[in-house]
Specification:
Length: 201
């Protein structure tokens, strides 16, 4: 085990554990999704295996040996406990941000800044909320936060684009629905007429 590492206090260990819990088993892929170097991921996998939070095995790949990992029940319980703890912290932070408690947000950042990439990676905190919070504080993101926020924002944008494209594929024009609901809410009797594609935009 790495010198002086306490897994329960290391955000990177939890990010790797979370990636494994989502079925990312290969050390190279874990490094890509967590933005942690492959060498560090392999060291973390060793730490997690020593703590019996994961089980690892070496497999021969095309380009040499690959370490593959899967999470144990103990690892799942620890990860779940940590996520609950971080969710509470995130709610507290967001309520301070909403009430514009600058000093409270500053104090939270001082105490918990290292956990922000894990919170964004796990979806506990929205990348957009974090970015606007940093802007409110006049603070710059560090490289790990920027990498996580950028990835999460891209995923959010991709999800929104997919949703919009699915709506358009169904032949539903996005503002047609708005026109119908406006007509209904204004109390105009539409008489159950046929809306079959004769909209004028």
């Amino acid at each position: 085990m790495s010198e002086n590492i306490r897994v329960t206090e290391s955000p990177k260990h939890f990010m790797v554990l979370d990636a494994i819990s989502r079925g990312v088993e290969d050390s190279g892929k874990i490094a890509r999704v967590t933005k942690v170097s492959k060498a560090e991921v392999e060291m973390i996998l060793n730490d997690l295996a020593v703590q019996k939070l994961i089980v690892t095995e070496q497999k021969k790949g095309l380009f040499g040996k690959k370490i593959q990992a899967r999470i144990t029940d103990t690892g799942s319980r620890l990860l779940s406990f940590k996520k609950q703890e971080l969710e509470e912290k995130s709610r507290h932070l967001e309520s301070m941000y909403t009430s514009r408690d600058r000093r409270g947000v500053e104090s939270f950042m001082d105490d918990n800044r290292a956990w922000i990439p894990m919170m964004i990676f796990s979806g506990i905190m929205s990348a957009m909320v974090f970015a606007s919070m940093m802007s409110f504080m006049g603070m710059a993101m560090n490289p790990a936060e920027a990498a996580m926020a950028g990835d999460a924002a891209n995923a959010d944008a991709q999800g929104a684009a997919d949703t919009q494209s699915a709506a358009n594929d169904n032949g539903v024009a996005s503002d047609a629905g708005a026109d119908i609901s406006t007509e209904e809410s204004s109390g105009i009797d539409t008489g159950g007429g046929d809306f079959g594609g004769d909209f004028e935009f």
